[in-house]
């Protein structure tokens, strides 16, 4: 039966080869004006540590953290309704509403926000388009469907009998929520939060279109370096930073889930 | 109840951009106005007659068809092996198969770009298709794996004991029982491939680029509502796919396993 994995291993090998090429080029010298790299060097990683690039990393981490928190808070009520509403019809409608943006691509969703935030019809109290605020709105909107699904899955695993028991012993609804529902949904909160955080760290389309070149996250700088300046070694080094950040986060997630299982 | 109001407001937040895109797509002028100045289909005509979109639509169909046709059998075999083979480190295998999901798009994209250029394949679609196969494979494996887990091996043993050859057992018993997983996997694969943007941006040229890349280039260069019209067509297709999937597969069963 093991041989059935062979074709999948070939696909993974191609994918690994691409990441291997990325890693190798991150260690090669960039020769301006040439697509051919020079010899082995650590210069690319040194320049990634230069202030302008470190600022981008910092900005990316901050935006990702803000996105994760806001997404959590805004997704929870929807997930709760999805998991608990007794009406099959309401659940179905809510599920389709939640999933529809999930199934529409990044470009369509981001373009929609360009229209909403940048139009001349509604005057926003603060400038939105091409600011961090606007990027944040787009990122939260982008992350909500997956967060809702993760939270709803966690909430639907909680036996409502616990909540009924707490209520029948005299706890007010708010207390039932804080002391029973919320703690029991912690696994969903943690994994949803980490998934959204990791995902936002490598966001590209949203900051590219809603940031309009003024707000840059790691992925945007990788694209600038790689596709506009043809500095593949520098772009590769920066992409390796993004990859390392993501893997570190997921290792943390794996540890947390393993800790729970044990 | 106030929770209901909050949920309604949040559902509105999720939906508003979609509604705005659809409204703008029928706007007769290039400059947005509200209420709309009238009703016009000129941006739809634009979408359908813009040569680059025609080319990109064809590329999308080609790349997605190839990617799904390759990933579906590959992922199905892998899911069968994951559940049934005597594997050491089953969890590691599963993690490896799902790993393309967690690699940042720019890292994978740039990696494939460098790989393609070192192989001299920058102008061909092969690297684009290979990348799409790798990116949709996790979705196929995950969906089919659930179906394999729910499949009672006694049914296959019964068929075999009644004299069916292994191939016949696979064709007549295993595959039909895996159908829900195969459908869900194929649906995910199509949706992911059709919408894949970042990796495709790195490894396509004007000749091979798929729709999301062409749309991105258009949005960056022009501000008229043509993209709103194209987006509306995308949203319509997506809603149809989701509705059909919910109707016949029960999305609740796929996403919220009680």
Written account of the structure:
- The complex is a heterodimer of chains A (262) and B (258).
- Chain A contains twelve helices and no strands.
- The longest helix of chain A has 34 residues.
- The model of chain A has no long low-confidence stretch (mean pLDDT 89).
- By secondary structure, chain B is mainly alpha-helical.
- Chain B contains 13 helices and no strands.
- In chain B, helix 1 packs across helix 12 and helix 3 crosses helix 6.
- Chain B starts with a helix and ends with a helix.
- The model of chain B has no long low-confidence stretch (mean pLDDT 89).
- Chains A and B meet through helix 1, helix 3, helix 4, helix 5 and helix 6 of A and helix 1, helix 3, helix 4, helix 5 and helix 6 of B.
Beta-strand residue fraction of chain A:
under 5%
Give the rounded overall mean pLDDT of chain B: 89
User: Assembly type of the shown chains?
Assistant: heterodimer
Q: Write the CATH homologous superfamily of the largest domain in chain B.
A: MetI-like
Shape of chain B: globular
Key phrases:
heterodimer, A: about 260 residues, mainly alpha, MetI-like fold, about 75% helix, B: about 260 residues, 2 domains, 13 helices, globular
What does the secondary structure layout of this molecule look like, with pairings?
The complex is a heterodimer of chains A (262) and B (258).
Chain A: H1 6-26, H2 43-48, H3 51-84, H4 88-103, H5 106-118, H6 132-156, H7 160-168, H8 173-184, H9 186-201, H10 205-210, H11 218-228, H12 232-261
Helix pairs in contact in A: 1-12, 3-4, 3-6, 3-9, 4-6, 5-6, 6-9, 7-8, 9-12, 11-12
Chain B: H1 2-25, H2 42-49, H3 51-84, H4 90-98, H5 105-119, H6 126-150, H7 153-161, H8 166-177, H9 179-195, H10 198-203, H11 211-221, H12 226-248, H13 251-255
Helix pairs in contact in B: 1-12, 2-12, 3-6, 3-9, 3-11, 6-9, 7-8
């Amino acid at each position: 039966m093991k041989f059935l994995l062979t074709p999948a291993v070939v696909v993974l090998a191609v994918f690994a080869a691409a990441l291997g090429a990325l890693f190798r080029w991150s260690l090669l010298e960039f020769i301006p004006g040439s697509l051919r790299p020079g010899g082995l060097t650590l210069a690319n990683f040194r320049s990634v540590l230069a202030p302008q690039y470190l600022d981008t990393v910092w900005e990316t981490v901050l935006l990702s953290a803000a996105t994760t928190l806001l997404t959590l808070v805004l997704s929870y009520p929807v997930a709760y309704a999805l998991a608990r509403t007794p009406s099959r019809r309401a659940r179905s409608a809510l599920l389709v509403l939640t999933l529809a943006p999930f199934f529409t691509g990044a470009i369509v969703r981001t373009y929609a926000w360009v229209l909403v935030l940048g139009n001349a019809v509604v005057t926003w109290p603060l400038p939105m388009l091409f600011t961090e605020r606007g990027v944040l709105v787009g990122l939260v909107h982008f992350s909500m469907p997956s967060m809702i699904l993760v939270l709803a899955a966690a909430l639907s695993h909680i036996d409502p009998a616990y909540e009924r028991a707490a209520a029948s012993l005299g706890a007010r609804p708010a207390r039932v929520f804080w002391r029973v529902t919320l703690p029991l949904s912690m696994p969903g909160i943690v994994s949803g939060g980490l998934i959204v955080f990791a995902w936002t760290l490598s966001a590209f389309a949203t900051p590219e279109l809603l940031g309009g070149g003024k707000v840059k996250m790691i992925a945007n700088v990788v694209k600038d370096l790689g596709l506009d300046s043809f500095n593949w070694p520098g772009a590769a080094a920066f992409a390796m930073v993004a990859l390392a950040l993501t893997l570190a986060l997921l290792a943390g997630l794996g540890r947390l889930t393993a800790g729970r299982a044990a | 109840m106030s929770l209901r109001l909050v949920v309604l407001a949040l559902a509105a937040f999720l939906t508003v951009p979609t509604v705005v895109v659809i409204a703008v797509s029928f706007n007769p002028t290039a400059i947005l106005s509200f209420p709309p100045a009238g009703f016009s289909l000129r941006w739809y005509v634009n979408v359908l007659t813009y040569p680059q979109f025609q080319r990109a639509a064809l590329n999308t169909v080609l790349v997605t068809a190839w990617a799904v046709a390759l990933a579906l059998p590959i992922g199905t075999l892998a899911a069968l092996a994951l559940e049934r083979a005597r594997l050491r480190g089953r969890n590691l295998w599963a993690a490896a198969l799902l790993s393309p999901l967690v690699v940042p798009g720019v890292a994978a994209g740039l990696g494939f770009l460098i790989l393609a250029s070192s192989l001299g394949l920058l102008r061909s679609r092969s690297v684009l298709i290979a990348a799409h196969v790798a990116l949709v494979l996790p979705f196929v494996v995950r969906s089919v794996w659930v179906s394999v887990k729910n499949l009672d091996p006694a049914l296959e043993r019964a068929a075999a004991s009644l004299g069916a050859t292994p191939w016949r057992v696979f064709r007549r018993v295993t595959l039909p029982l895996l159908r829900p997983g195969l459908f869900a996997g194929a649906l995910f694969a199509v949706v992911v491939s059709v919408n894949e943007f970042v990796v495709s941006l790195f490894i396509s040229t004007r000749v091979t680029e798929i729709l999301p890349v062409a749309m991105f280039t258009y949005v960056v260069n022009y501000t008229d509502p043509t993209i709103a019209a194209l987006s509306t067509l995308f949203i319509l297709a997506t809603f149809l796919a989701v509705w059909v999937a919910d109707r016949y597969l029960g999305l609740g069963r796929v996403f919220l396993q009680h």
